[in-house]
Sequence to fold (297 residues):
Amino acid sequence: MPYGDETEQRGRGSVDEPEESPLVGHRIELSYVGSGFSGWQRQKGKPSIQEALESVVERIWGRPIAVTGASRTDAGVHALRQAASFAAPRKLTPEELARALNYFLPDSIRVRDVKLVSPEFHARFAARAKTYEYRVWNHAVLDPFLVERVWHVPLPLAIPAMREAGDLFVGTKDFSAFATNSGRAYSSTVRTISGLALHHRGPSVRIRVTGDGFLYHMVRNIVGALMRVGRGRLSREELQEILESRDRKRAPASAPPWGLYLLRVYYVPARRNPCMGDSRTKRACSPLDQRTRSRHE
Fold:
């Protein structure tokens, strides 16, 4: 029997599972090419990463199951190690589930790893930090194999000036000036950037940013400002004034989405998972700390 048919039969059988079947958390690490998708989040009438995953999970389990992503990447944004989670009765081993997901998912979405976790695990709210990387191709001619994978900037860039300006963003600061207004209400616009590094090799320029949370379009807005510095159209002092002003209208335009990659999502390592049937402890799974949610909007 073909692998796909077998998985579908097992999925259909799950409809009859008793309601009291214990839920198990599933944490997925995946990579995807964002071109052709409307982003992570499900949108009516548009293809999304979340919709593709949920459709396959439903096919395997035989019922709709919500899948949550650590980062709600925008249309055209890529991911090397996005994290997602869902809770469902245990059906397949992590290895079997990874194979089943990759069997049904489009080639542009690949599951790298599956881990069993607490059913209360939430990929976005449990994240403690994320690293994004923005890729620029700084050459007169764009490599055709990099179309929609990098931002093509054909004019020369002052790399040392960009590195010096990038230091302004490191630390705990109010990033209001670098948050695109999309109607979102934030409990706080203060975020902590623990590192910003610029790597330059030949025509390749990569800007890597790690932080405890990011506002809407924050990384792309930072990159847009650094490009202005690199072109000599914005000084470090002017950039500092924009940051301190907390006024988005004073900041440069955002960099395009197709150069942005979610590189990694960081979690606190779990020494023991009491929700996975450990007979040595009777401690119940504790609810998520609600106070962390505003950090990962």
